[in-house]
Design brief:
Helix content: 40-55%
Strand content: 5-15%
Radius of gyration: 23 Å
Order of helices and strands: HHHEEHEHHHHEHHHHHHHHEEEEHHEEEE
Shape: globular
Bound molecules: protoporphyrin IX containing FE
Structural class: alpha+beta
Number of strands: 12
Length: 453
């Protein structure tokens, strides 16, 4: 008879830590990570130590995982052994009840509500509204000299986020939300301190204000007894088997969290798409051909796009997938081992962080030949299982992925059928804020195509 508990401990005793260097004990390798392209940092380590290696990041011992199997182990098959982990300052800024900080029953419950409000059935109804937001954005860019593409894309993805969360929200609330989000944006990655006047402190105040605005919106809905099918409606109407509802703070944290998760991510990818299309004329023509055909069949854009049409844009869709792979804007994620875990003979001690390295997997020539080359046709064949995870994997995988793809398709449709654009300046390179975007946010000039013909 073998006692499984003893057996387990024995194996753990034999397991050794993964290879790797821990750097300086206090600062770890943090300085090295931030002083160079983080992907070079990981790629060098991977070449030296293999797919699993240890290091110190932000003062924490950490195991990095660069194989699809290891990422799946942490995010899917053994997800219960690893909890999400974020710096306390970020948790405070977004709100501690937001779903991505949680594991277990509360997470599952809230996630279901978020998923329902972002399901294909829910988002297909938003197509005309998203089209309206996209066209207004494009028209406004065409009336400017030069725009900061990333900033403008952020405005666009925020408006779409608002549509999902609140449906048609009063302009007064929209402006107030935008204003306070901008302040949070500036403070989110700054040094956390309670000193008045600092970007972080201002952001914390703006966060409080966001809570108040949401409270007003909720009161108004309650007064009018509105039963909406948007995310706010789902969260407000929730009742568990015992009749418990969500508190206003839980609702607010989740709404602020979703808007946060939706904005910079989608905006960065859209900025990359514009750069890739701009840099490859043949590709641009192929996308334009596909979209123009649809535009013509919709009476020159008089009829709105249908859900079926958005599901049938194979050329554009592959450009989106390849942009997600190339840019891999979420290069990695963090979890923390809740017990000692053994993987492939290696020990991951309790309390250590683990980081599945999405970007390294997406740029591994074994899964994506010639990985630095932008080639949408590689997606004519489905990638090998678990090698393509731009939206993560498992219990915390992105519930907004269909919406993100839908809004990107819609924006590209209107962009290539009616507008042209030129990137301004000759800078090439990447900026990290913290998601990678083209240098200076891709300054560009837009114009309406008809005015050049
Ligand atoms: C191209 C755009 C986007 C990308 C690349 C992206 C990527 C991701 C990734 C990789 C995760 C998982 C993180 C982890 O496991 O640690 C995630 C989670 C999440 N995303 Fe997205 N996302 C995008 C757009 C959106 C949008 C538009 C929304 C909402 C409208 C959204 C809402 C969320 C939420 C709420 C989570 C947390 C889910 C959970 O913890 O259960 N995302 N996203």
């Amino acid at each position: 008879y073998i006692n499984p508990k003893k057996q387990k401990r024995k194996t753990n005793e034999k397991a050794k830590l993964p290879p790797g260097s821990m750097g300086w004990p206090s600062m770890g390798e943090t300085i090295q990570l931030y002083s160079q392209d983080p992907n070079d940092f990981f790629a060098k380590k991977q070449r030296r130590y293999g797919d699993i290696f240890k290091t110190h990041i932000l003062g924490c011992p950490c195991v990095m995982l660069a194989s699809p199997e290891a990422a799946r182990f942490v995010l899917v098959t053994r997800a219960h052994l690893f909890k999400p982990t974020y710096p306390k300052s970020k948790e405070k800024m977004i709100g501690p009840s937001a779903l991505f900080f949680h594991q277990g029953e509360y997470h599952t419950r809230v996630r279901k509500l978020v998923q329902n409000s972002l399901s294909p059935e829910a988002i297909r109804k938003l197509i005309p509204d998203i089209e309206y937001v996209a066209i207004s954005a494009l028209e406004s860019w065409a009336s400017e000299q030069v725009i900061h593409t990333f900033h403008e894309m952020k405005k666009f993805s925020f408006e779409v986020g608002i549509l999902c969360v609140f449906g048609h929200l009063d302009g007064k609330y929209r402006e107030e939300l935008k204003e306070n989000y901008c302040i949070i944006d500036k403070g989110y990655n700054s040094f956390p301190t309670s000193l008045p006047g600092t970007a972080y402190h201002k952001a914390i105040l703006a966060r409080k204000r966001l809570g108040q605005i949401l409270s007003e919106i909720i009161s108004e809905r309650k007064e009018k007894r509105l039963l909406e099918k948007d995310l706010l409606g789902h969260l407000m109407n929730f009742k568990d088997e015992k009749g418990n509802t969500l508190t206003e703070a839980q609702i607010a944290d989740n709404i602020i969290g979703v808007l946060f998760a939706a904005q910079d991510t989608t905006a960065s990818v859209l900025t990359w798409i514009l750069k890739y299309l701009h840099d490859d004329q043949k590709l641009f023509e192929a996308v334009k051909g596909e979209q123009k055909a649809m535009y013509e069949s919709n009476d020159g854009g008089k009829k709105p796009l249908t859900w079926a049409q958005t599901r049938n844009m194979p050329v554009t869709y592959k450009v989106i997938l390849e942009s997600l792979r190339m840019a891999s804007i979420i290069s990695f994620t963090f979890r923390e081992a809740v017990v000692d875990v053994e993987y492939e003979g290696y020990l991951i001690p309790k309390g250590w962080k683990v980081m599945p390295l999405f970007r390294n997997i997406h740029h591994n020539p074994e899964f994506f030949p010639d990985p630095k080359h932008f080639d949408p046709s590689r997606f004519e064949v489905a990638p090998k299982p678990n090698t393509f995870m731009p939206f993560g994997n498992g219990v915390h995988a992105c519930p907004g992925n269909e919406l993100a793809k839908l809004e990107m398709l819609i924006l590209v449709h209107h962009l290539v059928t009616k507008f042209r654009w030129e990137v301004v300046g000759s800078q090439t390179g990447i900026e990290y804020g913290p998601f990678p975007v083209p240098l200076k946010g891709l300054p560009a000039k837009f114009w309406k195509e008809s005015s050049t013909q």
